[in-house]
């Protein structure tokens, strides 16, 4: 039998080799700001663990190199990723001198490169497997569970990012709550306002161009500026409208961030509602009227279910975008993970930046996977007329 | 509304923008009511014109690099040689778009330090996705009959790519570039948080000194630039589409 | 009975249907023929008030069709269109159940009706009920479309180019099915088409429309015998006239006493088929038998030629 190489496997092998041979695995810094010493895998781990990890990575790379079943590749990738994440935690406790609470161990470029290589392998295997929506959510849950387990077990506690977390655990969860509230709350408000507006724009033609152009214009204003511009009007409302201040409306803080995210979210929701409704087959609409549905019945029983996948796509776009953009709210005192990102940038403490950026990315990624699964589960029936 | 109205409006907008950048001082009375007494109404820590040009330069450089790489990658994965990478590249684009620009920016800092570099990297990576996605869509959805005809006429693979596939994909590719530029123009402002010289500096200075006039002028310049560039690229796209006779 | 009384539809200055009056008898098939833009679809859509007329009145069994709200009226009238218009997000069974559901029928009654209709249209209820429209062939989709239109047992069925998207063989089958269904339920059918062959095949009466006016309204034979306008003549086609006459007459009507050899023909078949048989087999006459198989005499080439000649 001829041995067949997998082209992507070759790329992954090259990246992994790069990560093992030409980059450091972990960095040991005397304190959180100073430059540190780079350590390779064998330096960062006790011999048995270092060689064990190298052998495991070599086996996983070999599986990536040849054409094999995607399930095997997925298993290899999962094993490699799990080993890497456990090893980096172990390296941290191994490298930190006993009793030294200033020293910091962070993952170095080699760790990230290896993580990327095997994440690529996992992504490729998953793409080939084409798992049904529920299975993708299951994979996500397993990954999340694994990470939670690592966090709870304390095996990452030696890592610098966890030390940053350890110092501000209370604040972290408060900011996390603010972040999610901002992102989800503005999405909720945008759907509540955007759906009726979209339906209106679909039915009233002359309104459509005006509304969509205005919302398009809002999107061109850079997010920082929009956040800032809203400070003025909201401060004015807080000062003049009775009761507004009691509701939490203030010039700075979460209110302008909420309004800005809401305004940004409106365009995708309205535009996709219009597109979704316009994509309803005219015959289905005509038939719905012809067999005696009222306008309301037609909207809820025919147009809306058929437009749903397109509207859900908008919700996915908005949610992911909001989770990212909520980071910027920190600049105007709105809270969220951005607090750590910008504090970290200000103090040139990169571990603190990571403490803000990593949960943001993870949240956005999880939201995208779940909504994609939801969209796919809903678009089982193609939005078309003829298959014949 | 007459057909030439939008063109005149955009022309006026451009004239207004240029006038503001060349002589910001003459607009001071307009912005004065927005600031407290004694506070400056026009950005005074650098030239607005310089910052605008720097901003545009950063966006242009990142977009140019993103365009070249994205189109090359898209061509690669649509050839038989790279076909194995096609499904994966689709999922990667999907995953990549879930990375928030701020996070990309912040994560680039540890690797390359402060300044223009992390901004360029973030803009490049973020700009890559829409262009790649659009080029891929265009190249994989070419009319079958035309492709058959090209083969039937005896074109080589390279001739087909250069003379049929790329010209036909051009309007969709331009649409991707347009999307990419619009995102980059706004994202570049965030670059100022990592010390890149862009118009974000004006906005952030405004946020820090509670100066609404700064925020407004920074935001509006970026907004007007985005609208004008968006419209300009849309016009090019329409022209290309019309030339191809696709409606 | 549908009485269309001096109905007119104008869009701005554009008159689409111009002062049309006609009476459609119950339990008949009426076909409205015309080129595109003749106003035939608009006329049809004014019967169930998908389009509101500018002037005039339409009465269903003597009652003004504006007496009840439009959507209630439409629930009582079946409606089937080209490309079937099935709801892509609902199964075949759910599609058929739509109108009974809107009318608030009990579930058991709806289920029974769905099964009855599917069986009637030669679709197995267990197999096809849970499927989605895109999983069916074009012909099956079209049958489900008609089944849905008939689900609430309407007296009147309006059809807008219902067979337009089908290929010729499936279309012929669908037309036969429609006639059988019409006899089964006794439904009054108004069908719009641009296909003259379809009109002659299905219609008890044909209305020819051009530029919003009805040029002629009568039984098919009358259209051939005495076309009321040059347009009607063009539509029927000079070279088609004799064959159209034969196509609408039964072989039994041309039977005369006498013997003939060879394969007999059913009295129900058209004279056109009889002629084709004679020409193909090179005979001068062929035997005719009744539906029950009793010999009825013969049909001669000469008699058929006489039938096909211009009526005096």
Topology:
The complex is a heterotrimer of chains A (388), B (247) and C (312).
Chain A: H1 7-21, E1 26-29, E2 37-39, H2 41-44, H3 47-65, H4 70-95, E3 104-107, H5 109-129, H6 133-153, H7 160-167, H8 169-203, H9 205-220, H10 223-240, H11 254-278, H12 282-290, H13 295-325, H14 338-346, H15 350-378
Helix pairs in contact in A: 1-3, 1-5, 3-4, 4-5, 6-15, 7-15, 8-9, 8-11, 8-13, 9-11, 10-11, 11-13, 12-13, 13-15, 14-15
Chain B: H1 5-22, H2 28-31, H3 48-78, H4 86-96, H5 101-112, H6 116-140, H7 144-152, H8 157-190, H9 200-208, H10 212-244
Helix pairs in contact in B: 1-10, 3-6, 3-8, 5-6, 6-8, 7-8, 8-10, 9-10
Chain C: E1 2-11, E2 14-24, E3 29-34, H1 40-47, E4 55-60, E5 63-64, H2 70-75, E6 77-81, H3 92-96, H4 98-102, H5 107-120, H6 125-128, H7 138-150, E7 156-160, H8 168-185, E8 188-193, H9 196-202, E9 205-210, E10 213-218, H10 220-225, H11 230-236, H12 241-248, E11 265-266, H13 271-281, E12 285-289, E13 295-300, H14 301-308
Parallel strand pairs in C: 3-8, 3-9, 6-7, 7-8, 11-12
Antiparallel strand pairs in C: 1-2, 1-4, 4-5, 9-10, 12-13
Helix pairs in contact in C: 12-13
Structure characterization notes:
The complex is a heterotrimer of chains A (about 400), B (about 250) and C (about 300). By secondary structure, chain A is mainly alpha-helical. Chain A has helices at about 5-20, 40-45, 45-65, 70-95, 110-130, 135-155, 160-165, 170-205, 205-220, 225-240, 255-280, 280-290, 295-325, 340-345, 350-380; strands at about 25-30, 35-40, 105. Chain A has a 3-stranded antiparallel sheet with strand order 2-1-3. In chain A, a hairpin with a 7-residue loop joins strand 1 and strand 2 (about 35-40). Chain B has a single domain, classed as Orthogonal Bundle (MetI-like fold). Chain B has helices at about 5-20, 30, 50-80, 85-95, 100-110, 115-140, 145-150, 155-190, 200-210, 210-245. Chain B is flat, with a radius of gyration of 21 Å. The mean pLDDT of chain B is about 85. Chain C folds into 2 domains: about 1-235, Rossmann fold, CATH 3.40.50.300; about 245-310, Alpha-Beta Complex (CBS domain Like). In chain C, the strands form 3 sheets. In chain C, strands 6-7-8-3-9-10 form a 6-stranded mixed sheet, sandwiched between helices. Chain C has a 4-stranded antiparallel sheet with strand order 2-1-4-5, covered by helices on one side. In chain C, strands 11-12-13 form a 3-stranded mixed sheet. Chains in contact: A-B, A-C. At the A-B interface, helix 5, helix 9, helix 10, helix 13 and helix 14 of A face helix 4, helix 5, helix 8, helix 9 and helix 10 of B.
